[in-house]
Design brief:
By secondary structure, the protein is mainly α. It is built from 17 helices and eight strands. It folds into two domains: 111 residues, Orthogonal Bundle (DNA polymerase, domain 1), CATH 1.10.150; 194 residues, Orthogonal Bundle (hpI Integrase, Chain A). The chain has a three-stranded antiparallel sheet with strand order 1-2-3, covered by helices on one side. Strands 4-5-8 form a three-stranded antiparallel sheet. It is elongated.
């Protein structure tokens, strides 16, 4: 009786230099999926895969198919770890997270904050639980039970669930599992969108008192946040060239997270904000001789300020002087307050949606449609006049 043994291979991998001078990875292997197992060769860019470890991660899926294609297709043996490896490699999570601070990045990939969040969730929660589990053996109830056991806030559990949904979508796209209903779709978590504490809303009097406890540049930063509803990431990344004082509007198109400047949070966030004349004069006073660059450059390195540092050491002590909770208010308080004051002005919900630059504030807001520039300006100016003290308006008018 003649026995034959299965032949498994890693394939050969080497770095070579082409005549043009460019370096490439050269991978040679025998394709057992073809009759006669012919020798095949592929090349990959060193720029895309700068290290051998990254290149070998890229080749893991192909090795399963090359060595035992029938087992791969019929028995569906890949583990979830293979999905994680390919996801991290193809989405360049490590490269995005290691992007130097102070560098603008508008790539087609994930934003820095999203990439950093995904890497953290994968390393801390997903890999320890699912890396060695066959994809075919992961059931919805197991995912639900695991998500509920995570020592995370409801909102963060929702983020992990969304990541798992994305990973299963990619697994189907890459042929690592059959096309079917995503198993995470039937996993429902309660309370993921529910606020754990009620947002703090400042009255105009409280805001004006707060300004008395702040000095520039923080004072003007806060006024920008309060008079526009901008997120702090957008305020700190704002540049003078994005502000058009003649047309009376400014473009919000970038934000900064942990020193990395990138795109704004959503497509709807990339929009123009009207400039109330009084508020525009405040900006012009702060502008001075500046003509380009950041509106609020750090005097230490000329780059963006750190929002967390300002909140911890500047804002919260000032809030405390107003008698507000130590851990309650923060940068987002101004955005919540802006939204509440828009309600008080009687602004139509469609106008509010555009001024807040939300993709979906609510179903009702989506129904009301677009808002005109005039309506946006009128509603915005009412908020500015509410929060800026009369004496301040008189001072900038002189």
């Amino acid at each position: 009786m003649k026995f034959t043994r299965n032949r498994y291979q890693e394939g050969s991998l080497r770095k070579v230099r082409r005549k043009s001078g460019a370096e490439v990875w050269e991978n040679r292997y025998r394709n057992h999926a073809e009759p006669g197992s012919p020798m095949r060769q592929r090349t990959f860019s060193v720029l895309e895969y700068p290290t051998e470890s990254k290149m070998r991660l890229r080749l893991q899926e192909e090795k399963l198919i090359i060595n035992n294609p029938e087992s791969f297709r019929v028995h569906n043996k890949p583990t979830f770890g293979l999905v994680l490896d390919r996801f991290e490699t193809e989405e360049r999570l490590q490269a995005i997270v290691k992007q130097p601070t102070g560098v603008s990045s508008f790539t087609d990939g994930f934003s820095w904050s999203t990439a950093a969040g995904y890497r953290s969730y994968i390393k801390t929660h997903v890999r320890p639980k699912w890396e060695g589990t066959l994809i075919s053996e992961i059931k919805p109830f197991d995912i639900l039970d695991w998500l509920k056991s995570l020592p995370l806030s409801p909102k963060t559990r929702g983020h992990v669930r969304a990541l798992m949904h994305l990973l299963f979508e990619r697994a189907m796209l890459w042929g690592l599992m059959d096309l079917q209903r995503n198993p995470v779709e039937v996993v429902k978590l309660r309370g993921t969108s529910k606020r754990q504490k009620k947002p703090q809303i400042l009255s105009p009097e409280q805001f004006q008192a707060l300004l008395g406890h702040l000095k520039d540049p923080h004072r003007t930063m806060v006024m920008v946040a309060m008079c526009t509803g901008m997120r702090v990431s957008e305020v700190l990344a704002l540049q003078w060239e994005h502000i058009n004082f003649e047309s009376g509007e400014m473009l919000v198109q970038q934000g900064v997270v942990n020193g990395r400047i990138g795109r704004v949070k959503t497509e709807a966030s990339n929009d123009y904000i009207p400039l109330d004349p009084t508020f525009a004069q405040i900006l012009l006073t702060w502008k001075g001789e500046s003509s380009t660059g950041l509106v609020f450059p750090s005097p230490v390195n000329g780059q963006c300020y750190n929002a967390g540092t300002i909140q911890q050491h500047i804002l919260r002590p000032a809030f405390k002087k107003l008698g507000l909770p130590d851990k309650g208010p923060g940068w987002h308080t101004f955005r919540h307050t802006y939204r509440a004051h828009l309600d008080e002005t009687g602004a139509p919900v469609g106008v509010q949606q555009k001024l807040m630059r939300h993709s979906n504030v609510s179903t009702t807001m989506n129904v009301y449609g677009n808002a005109t520039s005039k309506a946006k300006l009128e509603a915005n100016s009412k908020v500015v006049q509410m929060v800026i003290a009369p004496q301040m308006r008189e001072a900038v008018a002189v």
